[in-house]
Please model this.
Amino acid sequence: MYSIGDLSRRTGVKVPTIRYYERMGLISAAQRSEGNQRRYEKNDLERLAFIRHARDLGFDIPAIRDLIALSGHPDAPCAGADKIAEDHLSAVRKKIGKLRRLEQELERIVSHCSGHSVEDCYVIRALSDHGLCEAEH
Model:
């Protein structure tokens, strides 16, 4: 059995976040000791490590909830999990594309700034007038 502090140290998930995941139903409600302290089992530790890794990869709570549900059926085909991961990958690629366009526009804005005072600053002008941007971002 693990205390909530033990769980936090072993997984790197903060105590308030563990309580949040418990309220959200991502991990089971903890058993309570005679002193009313939360007590978790090994499967709770494993589930929390799964959630932590999924969050580190950017999966949102609904996707994690779906993946957890799928993991409860080990003999089922993995097409559902694949679809969730593919959808997330697609969203990440879209974000990367948007960030690349944003990077290019910021590089362009910064490279055009040769003013010595805010009055002459191209950065300030570009931020004030979206029409000075070369592309949508």
